[in-house]
Structure formats: structure tokens, C-alpha cells
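seq as requested:
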Amino acid sequence: MNHYISLFLFSIFFLNTFSVEAADSLTPLVTDLPPQSVKELWADYDPRTEPIKTTLIREWTDQDVVIRYVIYDIGTFKGTPARMAAFYVFPQETVGKLPALLHMHGGGQRAYLRGAIEFARRGYAVLSVNWGGREMETAEAGDANTNWGAVDPTQSNVSGYASLLPKDNTIDAVESPRNNNWFLLTVGCRRGITFLEQQPEVDAERIGIMGHSMGGRLTGLVAGSDKRVKAASPSVGGSGFLQYNMWGLPGSARRVNGNMALFRKTIAGEAYLPHVTCPILYLSATNDFNAPMEFVEQGMKQVPHDNKRTTYAIHLNHRFTLDAEVSRKLWFDAHLQNRLTIPATASAELLLNRDTGIPVYRVMPDMSREIAKVEIYYGYERDPRNRFWTAANLTKKGDVWEGECPVHDLDEPLFVLGSISYRLTEAERRENDPETFLLSVADSVYPKAMQEAGIKATEKHQRLIDDFSRGYQDWYLLSGNNRHHWFFSTRKLVDPRWSGPKGGKLVFSVTTFEPDNTLGVQVETDRWRGYAKRQPKTYTALVPLQNTGQQNVILAASDFKTEKGDSLANWDGITELILSSAKKLKPDERNLSQWNGAIPTFSDLHWEGGKVITRPKPYPQKDGNSNHTGGLADPEFLKAIEESLK
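C-alpha cells:
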């Protein structure tokens, strides 16, 4: 459709952003008893009832796409209108109706113009909403923006995300899920779907939704409350179960102001996932802080159908590799454009009862398309945010891949992950798509089951941390090809097999390609361990590298210092090791210069000297959670969850 005709039709909905006071969009409570379930919470709300009155702030084109900066009506709350700013983007030349996508940004972010353009060029009409109210990209003086009126579910009201209690800017005068920020944001985003389905370019039967972090949380809430959604892909948010302790980590649950049971039944992510009927791909990272991996696994089990997939980016927190991220794009291409078929989740089993006493993870992928590679990883750390994932040595028998996952400590869980990399055909790839995409499968086993199965603790402490013969298999790289901003990090030292010996030194070789550089070596301690009353700290050692070529580095714990000059006393509590340019790690230090020459290479990273000791575990010793036989797999734990959702 010619976009000028589209603009004419769009202008039918054009109204001034100011209007007379209207009746409230939400039915008042008739008693002091608030909604007690997801079904009750949304029973009286229809996002189509009120007209979508829309203001066009500005329109322009970017090569082959039309971009509109719009304001649409969310509704009226406490007598005051609330309105949402957004970018609406679609291809300039269209043939027939387009599938559409609603994009919900993450915390501290705003409507994402570049991402909307990218998806428009894949053939979608995209609405990227600005729920947080930050200034829109391209905004000019006097431009209208999101205005929630008498309520405030933005990050200016942070406490509102974990509260049911009444305040001046909440809906109900009694404790109620409608007082929670997530409820109002879901209303605003569901109204965005109403906006999309009324656009002349859009096929209302092909609307998908996606969001990252807080936007991922919203994706789960919207998909679980609005049947108009035909495909969904949350990322690193929306897993559910955040108000529960992780296995063996008392105090790790997020808190709520008000009735916890009511929150879990009406607002928590796990209450919405059983209502998701559309195809859903969860895009995550193995070490994510906002959607811990075990919660993602348990959350996806709540989705009541099999048209669901999970993709994990290995070693990362709150970000993705290209082959993981493209899985989301392909998910929509498959379900809204019918351009390809996504393989089924791999069949897998964790074999425990073996004569060797060493568990084996067996992965049997869907072989419906060419597989580039299969990887199997395993790890022990209770807290998935700090877990190091070891790449298992694989054997292949026909279409079955197996990897041994030896255990170090029978009092700790074992977590396993299968990562299947599928090839894309040239016809399936779009511009800038990688050649492969990822799908994942995961499992876990906890101490009681391991002991009953006769698992043996066969792994020992190792002095060699990494010889780099497999490149950076055990690391994550940020700006890995940028000679000024390269940043290489690993969680390997959190694994007891590679913990630092008492009094030992960290030793490695580095090869530089130009002289006069300063290497930064950094360790972080006790990251994410607030539940154990431990505060994270960062210590940095600066290593002058005056020559070109291979140079040896020897560092004692005392060589690492905080910004205040405090020295690292010992190697206890390390959760991350980082190698980078010193200027990257300390950008404000004037005596440090940018990195000279090509990015260095490393070899023979190991511990030298000292005494290997068994350190106390960084977890509270007495609690009502660590004795669970299976964490989220514990029948008693699951029973409690089921009761909370009734």
C-alpha cells in the first residue's frame, strides 16, 4: 500500500493530545476484596473498548521504511488521561497486509528506533512503545512524550514494581494487584496491540510481541493476558519465580511490599506463563541476573503446550551472541511469515547410574535441518549468575551426542546444557544474519539424587587454568575485535577446580605487537552474593608491557587493588577474572594511554606455588531451602508453587 494513502487513513485517528476528562478505564472495586488470580485481574478489562485516539507528532522515511512518531491513548486513570509515545515503523512499499510486532524496551531504556527499522526491513510493521517516558530519539523541543497522568508505573516509582499497597498514585485504595506497576504497564502495552490491529497495513491475525529485560517481563505478562498475541519472544525477563529462593541460597528471593501470596497469584511471571497459548521462544543467557537459568527452565515448563523453545548464550549475562539473538528473529519469521520451520527442542537425558560414577549428558537433536555443531556444558555453582560452564568432551554415535560431566563435590548440584547450532539456508537468511542459529536444552540433578545414583566425585583441583589451545572457549569477549575496547572475561576461578591456592601466584604469558602498553588484569569478588551478606568488590592490577613479543606476567594477590588502594588479601571469593587494556578498565586515569597495536594473545594461564586448600562455601549454612533434594525440581517445592497459583 502506498504510504500516502496509509497516512490519509491514519489521520482518521488523529486527535489533539488533550481531551476532556473521561470515565476511568478500569472498573472500580465493588468490595475491598481485590482480584485473586490472573483470570480475575483481567476479567473486566478489554483493551479494545475505548477508541485508540492517536496523535501523529512527525513522519519521515529512512530509505525503504516509513517512520512515525506517535502518541496513543492508554486510558483514563483516576480521572486523568494517560498516553504512550511510540515509534511506528513499516516498509514503504507493501504488498498485502503485514505481520506486526510490538516491542517493549528494557529498564532505563526507551523506544528502540534502530531495532524497529531492522524488523520493518524484515517485512513487519513495528510499534516500539516508550513506556518508561525517557525522551524519545529524534525528539524536538515541545514534542509530546509518554504521560501516565495520575499514576506512575515508570522507573521514577521503582518501589511500585514490588508492591501491592495503595498510594496516592495507585488505582485502588486497598491492597491490590492493580496498584502494581506491572499491571499498568501491561495495560499500556495491550493498548499498543489495539493500535497495531487498527492500522491499515497490519494483518491483525499476525501480531507478535517481544521485549528485553523489563520488556521481557512485560512480554510474558502481555502474552499471558491477551489472546491476540500469535507469537512471543521474551528475553532475560519474564521467567517467573523471582520471589522464590534459589536452591541453597536463602535470602536470594526478591521481596514484595504486601501480600506475597497475592503477588505470586496475580503479578508474578509464573502466574502468566500457564496462560500463554501462542508459540514462545525464550531468549536468555546462562549467567543472567534478571532471569536466573533455573527460573527460566521452570518457567518454560509452565507453558501448557509444546510450541516453545529456549536459547541460551553461553557465559553471558544480559546479552547475546549473534547466533543466539537471531533465533528470535527467525522465530517470528517462522510463525508470522511462514518462511521456515524451527526444529523441535532436542531430546536429552542425564545418565547417572553408570559404572564409572561419572554422569553423562546425552543429546539427540532434531535432525530436520543441517547441524553445524553440538556443544555440551556442565557446571556446579548454585548461583547461576556466577556459574562457570565447562565444555564437555563429546562423542558422537549416529545422531546422538554424549558428553561426560564429572563431579567435584557430591554436596553441590550438577547443571548441564546442550547447545545445538543449526545452519540457515541462503534463502532464509536476511541481511546481517549469521550463518547459524541456536536452540538449547538443559537439565540438573541435586545432591540427594546424585548420592542415591552412586555418582563419584572424580574431579580434582587443577593448576592449569587455560592454555588457550581452544581459543576463548571458556571466556566471554566484549568488543573482541576492537583494539581499544577489547575485554576478555571468565568465571572459571569460581569453580573449585581452578580456585587460587593459598599464597599462590597467578601466572601467564602475553604476546604484544607494539611496545609501550599497559595490561589491566582485574578480579571481581562476591558478585551477586548479597544473600550471604557479602559485598562485591573490584580489584585491578596494572601490568606495564614495554616490549614487543611474548612477556611473562606473575601476579600475587596483593598486586590487585581497589580504587581506594586496598589490596586483595587472598584469592577467596573470586567470581570473575578479566583481561583487558588498562585504559578500558580505568578510563579516567590520565597517565594510561589507549592500547597500541593489535589485540594481544595469551597463553599458559596457571597457578604457581602456594597450597591448595578447601575453602568454606560462600553460602549461609542453615536455612529452610538448601536441604531441598531438588531445588526447583523438588516435589515439595513444586507442590508449594502449584498451591500458590490456585
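The radius of gyration is 26 Å.
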